[in-house]
Protein: Probable transaldolase
Amino acid sequence: MKFFVDTAEIDQIAELNDLGMVDGVTTNPSLIMKSGRDILEVTKEIAALVDGPVSAEVVATEAAEMIAEGRKLAKIAENITVKVPLTWAGLQTCKTLSSEGTMVNVTLCFSANQALLAAKAGATFISPFVGRLDDINIDGMDLINDIRTIYDNYAFDTEILVASIRTVNHVLESALIGADVITAPPAVIKKLADHPLTDAGLAQFMADWAKTGQNIL
Ligand code: E4P
Structure:
């Protein structure tokens, strides 16, 4: 399963990238706003830093303007993935840009039928938002299961990019279901290494080692 980092903060991306944990990056207008950076500049920097796909989202709502924005974003670097919302205009943009060879990430997906449309429109990635479904008391992981079944039934190439990840359990369940990619905030990716028994075991080893009076170096 690939790990994308869901942020536009260069330092945080670089830190995880150095550890080999970054297969790609996703941004959205809210994350660009939080970074305080110019979208074209920060996207260019991220794309130069990371080898994998870097999602940059269009902000127009009509297809012609979305396509124009997408073409401009795609010119930033070869690894740019144009992110479009799951609307009919977004699907039209997806079809046009994917036919031109541009990677497209269809975002704001909340139903399996929406995911089916995105695959038929040639999406490279579909981004179902599990956390926002959990927020309204609908199990987001049920959606991932349904999309996995549908995509496997018809051998669609579109990759399931689980988005709106809030917990380490979202990551675990995505892996168990067989999602292709997760995109998570850096803090969630870092938490994947945590376990209280690891901490307790290490403390015990350190205490016992101190009693030996030995050094390795
Ligand atoms: C990524 O592509 C999404 O924009 C992001 O995961 C949304 O996360 P949120 O629901 O926590 O804002």
